[in-house]
Amino acid sequence: MTSAELYVQTFLKDSEISQVYVKGARIWVPDEEKVWVGAELLENYTGQKTIRIQIEDSAEERDYAIKDKKRLPHLRNPEILIGENDLTSLSYLNEPEVLYNLQVRFLERNCIYTYCGIVLVAINPYQQLPIYGNELIQMYSGQDMGTMDPHIFAVAEEAFKLMSRFDKNQSIIVSGESGAGKTVSAKYAMRYFAMVGGSQAETQVEQKVLASNPIMEAIGNAKTTRNDNSSRFGKYIEISFSKNNAIIGAHMRTYLLEKSRVVFQAAEERNYHIFYQLCASRDRPEFKKFCLMSPDDFYYTSHGMAPEIDGVDDAEDMLSARDALTMLGITEKDQMMIFQIQSAVLHFGNVKIREADGESSEIKKDDKHLSIMCKLLGIEESQMRMWLCHKKIVTVGEVLTKPLTLTQASFAQDALAKHIYAQTFNWIVEKINRALHSNTKSTKFIGVLDIYGFETFEVNSFEQFCINYANEKLQQIFNMHVFKLEQEEYVREAIEWSFIDFYDNQPCIDLIESKLGILDLLDEECKMPKGSDENWCQKLYDKHLGKAKHFEKPRMSRSAFIINHFADRVEYQADGFLEKNRDTVLEDHINILRASEFELVAELFEEKVDPNEKKSRAGSATTHPMRQAPKGGRSNKKTVGSQQVQKATVGDQFRESLKKLMETLNATTPHYIRCIKPNDIKEAFIFDPKRAVEQLRACGVLETIRISAAGYPSRWTYPEFFQRYRVLARSKDINRSDHKKTCENVLTKVIQGSVKKTPRGLEDPDKYRFGKTKIFFRAGQVAYLEKLRSDKLKACGIMIQKHVKGWLARRRYQRITKSVTLLQKYGRGLLARRHAKFLRETFAATRIQKQWKGYRARREYVKVRKATVVIQSAIRGYFGRMLFKQELHEHRAITIQKMVRSYLARRRYKRVMRGIVLLQSHYRRRRAKKQLKVLKIEAKSVEHIKNVNKGLENKIIQLQQRLDAKNKEGMSIKEQEVYIKQLKGELEKLRSSNEEGKRSSNKVSELMQQIKDLQEELSREREEKQVLITKSEEMVKEHTQMLSKLAEEKCQLKEQLEEASLKLQQQETKTDDEMKKKLEETNALLAAEFDSERSHHQRLVKEHARLQQRLENLQSEMAVMNSPGGHKRTPSDISAISLESYTSSVSPDEVKYDDEGPEEKDQGYGTKKKKKAPAPPAPTANAMEKEMKNVDIGLVLKLQNKVKELERQRTELEEKLERYEEETPQGTTDTAVISDSAFNALKMQELQNENDKLKREVNKLMKSISENVSFERGGTNSPAGKEFMDAKVEDQMKAFREQFTAMSDELERRREECLQLRAMLAEKSITTHAIAKESYGGMDDIVNEDNELALAYRTQKELNRLLENQLQKTEKDAKKKEDKLKREIRDLKHENEAAQKVINQYNSITRNLQLGPEAKIEATMQHEITRLTSENLDLREKADKQSDQIRKLKKMLKVYAKKLKDGDVAEIEAELERDDKQKKSDDGVATVKHLDRTYMGMLEYKKEDEAQLIKCLILDLKPKLAQGLLPGLPSYLLFMCVRHTDYINDDEKVRTLLTNTINGIKKCVKKHSKELDRVIMWLANTCRLLHTLKQYSGEKAFQSENTPRQNEHCLRNFDLSEYRQVFSDLAVWIYQTMIKYMEEVIQPMVVSALLEHEAIAGLTASKPAGMRGRSSSSAHEEEGREFSLDSLVKALNKYVQILSQHAVDPELVKQVFRQLYYYIGSNALNNLLLRKDMCNWSKGMQIRYNLSHLEQWLRDNKLNESGAQSTLEPITQASQLLQARKSDADVDSICEMCSKLTTPQIVKILNLYTPVDEFEERVPISFIRKIQERLKSVKREEGEDNTLLMDTKFTFPVTFPFNPSSVTLDSIDIPESLHLDFLTRV
């Protein structure tokens, strides 16, 4: 394609041309050396044939010929568009502008990357640039492609973003000629994916992907004349990703390895790197056996005569390749075998074949290279020697051997060497694919295609033909993709558009691959027995010459042909096409290699299945299998013997693999990288325009420009267009609510209105189109708009200058006028001030005289008035005192009279009242005597007695009912009696103290109020206790229900398992059921008999009680009759009816028997209840472990505590009952029997209840102990520990069970005796009528004739006393037994605990037996220390008690000594007497005393509660709860626990506590790493714990600010300095976690807040997007969230608030914000360095303004001294650099100002500096060079830093300055909200 064909139509009409091509217009003209040069028109163009121009570079003037008006010279773009990131953003799109922009960016700005639409143009700098670091990857990660500078990372990020967002596969196509940097670009793209998609799996797939590069470079790259590391094969790497966008695997496909390079290289070229690496490593021991030599000594590596590459160490590269092979899983054995095969190829090339007699050849017998080669490959030397010079011919009946000529043998030798190398290459690729393969299902992938670019040389052969064929296919996809994107854009914006004509290379592709095309004819000629290159070339002439426009024939050759490719015309030499396409190897050679003794060699040459039958990703695309189905129906036959095996040709294979590649690329979204080689001499930053233009035409960049220019290349959104060109609009046409309408007005009205003045305008609608969101312009229209805008701004500037100059003149005139006025004003003012001074002096003199006269008169008046007031006060006081004395005398006289008169009146009243009382008593005595006589008479009559008895019976029944009710009420009141008595005792004490101290009534009232409060508190505690008891009972019930449910399930499972013997069990079940029914019937009968006997017994008891009451009444009557002087009253509140109440009710034992079932019921009087089955034997340790899996240990412990509490309560009740019995007054002699019997009956019932209760509790305790023998540590007992427990514990349990069984039998016996006594009592209770009926014939009158009832009563009384004695004896025995049992249980518990400790020690000893001698000694010492520590703890507890008692006594002694000194002996005696009385009173009633305790600042906890402590205090602690507590409370509580472990000297306990604390904090922070409140809370607490450990460590350096009390709390036994370091490291880790999260939160805000946020209204700080080109290749971009500066400030305010809420140390807060500000500044600077649109004067102003807000925020929060502001200096200096004046005189000032910026950063900013408007000046390149030179001299002295980007991962070292606390440990209370009830303050 010629340069003329690359001209771009600018859509100019004839009328418009004359307006553009005017004098001074800048154009481009062709040049032979520079391709294009800039020029300026010296005259207007009016249609003439020649025009006068001036060349800019040389100032040469010449005439430029114009042959056609449609081919006018290209116009140049405005300076403001020069150096754009995207070439499509240029207003004039043409070849010279593209070339010039690339040259400016490459040479002046050192930018090697430039966008051209969807293509990234990469120019090889031939120099290592610092633009590929990890920090740059982080900067591009997640960013928009259009906002950042062009970079390969931006393309990779775009592909990764589209894949992750839309789950669509992507491809990155890297193309370019050799030496353009394709391999390096592909390597960096894969490196980017490995970084952003790095998986956390152990395999580290991304490292393996990168490791494949050195391997493939070693075996597939070579030095050429154009490139030192040229890839001689194409490859397509698919990087697979998971759903989480992490790399899970990869796959590589290779294309067209250049096998001919193995046997031949051109001058100044090398073979593949692997051969030279082997030769460079020949001195290594493992390579000695390969017999390697120098590369110059091997035939295959000496053709190019350039064995070395400057700057490359082949030996080091060999080590890198071996490391990569190892990483990819290739064993050392296989590696050495591969190297051995490659070495054999080198030796094979040195085998000399010489010509023999006739047409034959031979090899010398002493050829050592053949021997070495055969030895290395493990084959027979004789066979190889034979068949290298011969071949087999198989006929129908025989096999012939034909010798080969020298040429044929040499060709066969080279073919075998190439085949061996190719097979080795394919094997390595297959191994790499296996290593990179992932078993995880891949959902998406990104492919990286590194393929050869278009090639044209002086001699082009088969390889160049295949390469250019592949590029034709890729260019076709590229053109279609570009056209598709353009079409989608127009359709999406709904604009009218015409079809864009673009170059279609389908005819060229059809010429190559269609039926009877070039490849098809080549394959056909290869099948001919005598086919030749000349015959094939002639067929091409016959078939395509004159028929295909892309095919031509050279004039002077008949063995060559020309193809017109899209990039250029290429002439191919047909010589060698057939042989390279066949790629044949003799079957005899292959068979020899298959018979190798080395497995890998034989494996390489095994027959493989056609890959077309496999998946497309099965392996390398360069394998050469048998063709199964050739095109055109032709068959390939596999011959036998020495005949060549017909395989699929190379061309056919390449066509099929290319077809699969195209299918893959069409199914993905492509991204294009075109690599450009700037020069052929490989020098850094030298740009050859000729070479660049050739590559731009070949790689399709200019085609992209042409397609873009053919449509609407310039695109502006409506807001951007309005912002840029609103100066062209009138105010009445502006509609700010509708930007589209405003833009239409600008384009249709304003600009068309200028047509009258200028013929050119935009009235043609085809020059622009209005879309939905954008305006589309044809090429050149934006430049015209810029011209109009510039003219408008110039006119505005002139207007502004006019007004400014007029304002300056007016201001000068006003200054002169003002000066004259001021002179006049000051002169007149002087005269006025003089007159005013005279008037003021006159007025002041008059005022002074007036004031002095007034003062003197007032002083005389005050003196007289003061004397008068003194005289009056003395007289009035005298009269007042006299009046007071008189009134006092009268008051005393009245008081004396009052007292005398009242005394006389009281004496008279008492005398009268005494006489009245005597008269009344005398009269009442006489009436009583008369009434007594009447009653005596009535008492002797029988009727009266009957009436009295009837009344007594009714009264007895009522009393019985009342007694039952009272008994029920008494049971509920009994619990409160003791408490009431205690209160009464306390009340009596208070009363006595009240009588002694009446004067302190206020104190008494306070004490009374306190008593009431205590009563209420006690009642509340009682209620809470009752609630807890209820809950525990419910838990017990639930546990029993759970056990019952489990038992039922277990029974169901057993029934299912025993279905086999169901019939036998059913028979047994039937028998058992019958027996049970009979037993139940018998029990029912017995129960009925028992009920009838019980009712009969109750009737007898009632009758007996009635007779006793009657006897009691008779006795009282007799006593009254026999009394000589009066009567005695008998107590009526005690009656024998209580006995009836007792006997009529059912005892608890009986109720229990009824509940227990028929087998356990009492069978009647005198019968004994069946004994219970003996207790089961103690379970073994294994059984206990099995049962413990289903038992709640916590519930068992609660039940044990409940049993202990019940035992304590029962003991207290017994003591209270005994005291009550002692204090209860005895009745009279007559009623003693009745009261004793009732009391004894009640007492017997209570004792039985208590015995039953005790038995139940003992049963529970027994069960708990039996289940709990191995509870605490049973799970960890070793077999030896279990045997020890069997020997120690089970003996104790056995003795306990025997004692328990004996006690149970004793209790049963006592109960039976009680029943027998009850039966005897029932038998004695017989009514009077029954006695009369039995003994006196039914005559009731003579029953008591001889005082029989009195005799019976005395007998009954004696029996009752006997029963009472027996009952008391039984009670005492039971109590003794009970106490003994309690002591035994308590002893067993202690022994159990001791045994458990011994078991644990024994277990640890058995574990330690496996240790070494030193470890055994250490473990033994540890056990001994633990035992001594526990004993020491017990002794210390006793010593503490004694010390407390001594301390109290000392206090008392001090008080008494003080009182003795003061003489208060009487007071001391009175106090001692009160103490004695109090002790005596305390003997009767027990009181609770609250002691004044002095806490030691410790918290005691049990070992088993440690996990709960960590859970409540660390894992479950909420930040909101912690905010309401004392700052650092968790750390204080943890240290108080540490203090207790130090106090008891338990190093194991403190070690586990601190370790669990550290692990708990780590676990909490890791789990809640995204909860900033929680992370900061534990950072504060960790620092506080660290400071506390230092403060109380006992080191003097940390005690300077401690109080004496705090020094007492220091650690005594432990040195925790090592743990301080651990906590310091933990704090650093938490700090880093917090900083990481904070940085993640503010990271998306930094760029928006500092760089993009425009706080200064009206200041345009960025270039519109319409000038920046398209942002990405994706038409669908999601808009991210916009952040402002306020968002960043709010985030910082939130951080400050949280840090202050948790009381983080102020110094640490400063370090936090210092780190955050560094992160903000470094991110902002890095983004600024990568964004050209941000580098202008206006943006510098905006950035500086935004930074001032952050600096003000530091001052507002008092953080300006934290050093955070200094971290913003780099970005601040960068903003100042953007605003600074950039002239040669400012070089030194700029260097001094930018002290915190590195040289690359300053140069980068200056290179990126782009004016927003054309009024600004660009930075001259000379100025940048001067800055560089100046900075080099300055930096050389200070130490040069050449880093471009700041390290955003840099962290300042964090420190934790010691910050002691003023809080004392003994003043800290534990809040209930923390649920730490198990902690005890010490």
What is the element layout, followed by pairings?
Elements: H1 14-20, E1 26-31, E2 35-41, E3 50-55, E4 61-65, E5 74-75, H2 95-108, E6 113-116, E7 119-123, H3 134-140, H4 152-166, E8 170-175, H5 182-196, H6 205-220, E9 221-222, E10 230-231, E11 234-241, E12 247-255, H7 273-280, H8 314-327, H9 332-349, E13 353-355, E14 361-363, H10 368-377, H11 381-387, E15 390-394, E16 399-403, H12 406-436, E17 444-450, H13 462-493, H14 506-513, H15 518-527, H16 533-544, E18 551-552, E19 560-564, E20 569-573, H17 577-582, H18 587-594, H19 599-604, H20 650-666, E21 669-676, H21 689-699, H22 701-710, E22 714-717, H23 718-725, H24 739-753, E23 768-770, E24 774-777, H25 781-939, H26 942-996, H27 1001-1057, H28 1062-1122, H29 1137-1144, H30 1148-1156, H31 1181-1188, H32 1193-1223, H33 1232-1267, H34 1279-1324, H35 1328-1335, H36 1348-1408, H37 1413-1462, H38 1465-1484, E25 1499-1500, H39 1506-1515, H40 1519-1523, H41 1529-1544, H42 1547-1567, H43 1572-1591, H44 1604-1608, H45 1617-1652, H46 1665-1668, H47 1685-1701, H48 1706-1729, H49 1737-1756, H50 1764-1767, H51 1769-1779, H52 1787-1793, H53 1799-1808, H54 1821-1838, E26 1880-1881
Helix pairs in contact: 4-5, 5-6, 6-8, 6-12, 7-8, 9-10, 9-12, 13-14, 13-20, 13-22, 15-16, 23-24, 26-29, 27-32, 28-29, 29-33, 32-33, 33-34, 33-36, 34-36, 36-37, 39-42, 41-42, 41-43, 42-45, 43-45, 45-47, 45-48, 45-49, 48-51, 49-51, 52-54, 53-54
Helix- and strand-based class? alpha+beta
The residue ranges in which pLDDT falls below 50 over 5 or more consecutive positions are: 1-11, 199-203, 610-645, 753-763, 1123-1193, 1224-1239, 1268-1289, 1479-1492, 1668-1680
Name the average pLDDT: 76
For the report, how would you describe the main beta sheet? 7 strands, mixed
